[in-house]
Design a protein that fits this description.
By secondary structure, this protein is of the alpha/beta class. It has one domain (about 10-305): Vaccinia Virus protein VP39 (Rossmann fold), CATH 3.40.50. About 45% of the residues lie in helices and about 20% in strands. It contains 12 helices and 12 strands. It has helices spanning about 25-35, 50-55, 65-80, 85-95, 95-110, 125-135, 145-160, 205-215, 235-245, 250-255, 260-270, 275-285; strands spanning about 10, 20, 25, 60, 65, 115-120, 140-145, 165-170, 190-195, 215-230, 290-295, 300-305. The protein has an 8-stranded mixed β-sheet, with helices on both faces. The chain is globular, with a radius of gyration of 18 Å.
Length: about 300
């Protein structure tokens, strides 16, 4: 489904010129659909409605920024840490992130006939688990705004012997470079499952990303978001906050020579919407029902929604 190593399809502006498995000439269709949905991407017109619906758009961690500046800064963060991203995940979570991701796959119960879209999945952690859970038979597309992260994931896929089995696409979660599931007539029909793990909090306009997720999912399609959340127990919360603020940036400095990027990641967790708020925003984005499951005393949460 993909081209030779090093050729990652780039379509970050919300459209693509060509698409494998009979999806051709999608640029106009994607932009038309995005316009109807009010999805202008990072360069579009910002409105007062955006301010109300997407309060996080103006915050890079605890720093107030212009929305376009936030997108650029987030790109810079992952440019800086791409090469050691997975090592840092193991260090920060003491390996527990692997258990969280495995739980996500169990909740999804992936089937070989399903088509998967993994957004913000550059290094391939979720895509590889989905691929193995379907006996290496499912059609999986990994979409990430950061080409450096995709390069890391693509290299890992080749090292695992996956060859060209997965597709790697550079694209913005707010304006995905895929046609709408409800309007395509080229045989695509939409995705069955959309996943985003530890990526939604880095999106500038969360509501646009949720709306676009619903747009590309077929009727009955499932949305899964694995994301850091908020610890409810006050004693555990104080311990968790102390660890996050004091230790994680220092780990970042030691492992990636970049403490600032990990300071942002700590702050972005604190700024992420509460569980009930995100559940409500999923319904507003066009999903018929939504739920969530907390893990590790609320450190992370799996959000699920059905179109």
């Amino acid at each position: 489904m993909t081209a030779p190593k090093g050729n990652i399809r780039r379509a970050a502006s919300g459209g693509s010129n060509e698409r494998t498995y009979s999806m051709t000439n999608t640029t106009g269709a994607a932009r038309k659909n995005n316009k109807k949905s009010g999805l202008q991407g990072v360069d579009g017109n910002e409105t007062q409605q955006d301010d109300a619906a997407n309060p996080e758009r103006n915050w890079f961690g605890y720093t107030r920024v212009d929305p376009r500046e936030k997108t650029a800064r987030v790109l810079g963060v992952f440019d800086n840490v791409a090469g050691r991203y997975d090592i840092m995940n193991d260090a920060m979570s003491m390996g527990i992130h692997r258990l969280w991701k495995n739980r996500l796959i169990r909740d999804i119960r992936p089937q070989p006939h399903e088509r998967f879209l993994d957004v913000a999945g550059g290094t391939g952690d979720i895509a590889f688990r989905l691929f193995e859970a379907t006996n290496r038979n499912a059609a999986i597309t990994v979409c990430d705004i950061n080409a450096n992260m995709l390069e890391v994931g693509r290299d890992r896929a080749l090292d695992r012997g996956y060859g060209n089995a997965l597709e790697w696409v550079t694209g913005n979660a707010e304006a995905l470079p895929f046609p709408s599931a409800t309007t395509t007539t080229d045989g695509f029909g939409g995705f069955d499952v959309y996943t985003i793990a530890f990526g939604l909090r880095n999106v500038t306009h969360i509501d646009k990303a949720l709306t676009d997720a619903a747009r590309v999912l077929k009727s009955g399609g499932r949305f899964y978001c694995l994301e850091f959340s908020h610890v409810d127990n006050p004693i555990l919360r104080r311990a968790y906050d102390a660890y996050s603020n004091a230790i994680i940036p220092r780990m970042g400095q030691a492992i990636t020579n970049d403490s600032d990027s990990y300071q942002y990641l700590v702050e972005s967790i604190r700024q992420f919407p509460r569980r009930e708020a995100l559940k409500a925003r999923l319904i507003e984005a066009g999903f018929s029902r939504a739920s969530y499951t907390t893990l590790t005393h609320g450190v992370v949460c799996i959000h699920c929604a059905i179109k």
